[in-house]
Amino acid sequence: MRGPLGPSHVPISRTRGQRFDDLVLDAVDRLKPRWGSQLAAVEFAVEEVPPVAELTDIPERSAVPLSRLQPAVDSDPNIIVVYRRPIEARAGDRDQLGALVHDVVVEEVANLLGLSPETIDPGWDERH
User: Fold this and answer.
1) Which helix (H) or strand (E) holds 16?
2) Which residues in 70-104 are b (16+ Cβ under 10 Å) and which e?
3) What is the C-alpha to C-alpha distance for residues 3 and 67, in angstroms, rounded to an integer?
4) In 3-state terms, what secondary structure has residue 42?
5) Structural domains of the chain in order of their starting residue, each with its CATH number
6) How far apart are CA 106 and CA 121, in angstroms?
């Protein structure tokens, strides 16, 4: 895991991974006006691919997870991990990539808060 996402200096040339991190941060920022207090104690991270253990627990071999919620333990916060390569593989272009990242973040936040994705992002239902 590259670790929690946060603000950084913007270099002239951004890597593919850095651009993906930006999409995740943008998705979180879009939710903050309405859910900021609930998200304050949540960390967001990006990993390239799911760990092997997550792949062996899948009944359908074709279903690769796009993210996971790591629940808080003791003093560790809740962590939402987004998997870059499986999401990139499903997206046809940059616009689809941004929309898919947003949807994945919305779904995990909904899971964390015990709410529907439509409650987290009222426009979610229109896209599905």
Assistant:
1) helix 16-39
2) eeeeeeeebbbbbbbebbeeebeeeeebbebbbbb
3) 14
4) strand
5) 16-127 (3.30.2010.20)
6) 7
Q: What DSSP character marks residue 77?
A: P
Q: Which helix (H) or strand (E) holds 37?
A: helix 16-39
Token pair listed for 61: 């071999």
Name the residue type at position 63.
A
What is the spatial order of strands in the sheet that 42-47 belongs to?
42-47, 78-83, 67-70
Q: Going residue by residue through the chain (128 aa), what tens digit of pLDDT does each one get?
A: 455 565 555 556 778 899 999 999 999 999 999 999 999 989 999 999 998 877 765 665 557 899 999 999 999 999 999 999 999 999 989 889 999 999 999 999 999 999 999 999 998 777 76
Q: Closest by alpha carbon to 64, among 85, 91, 46, 45?
A: 85
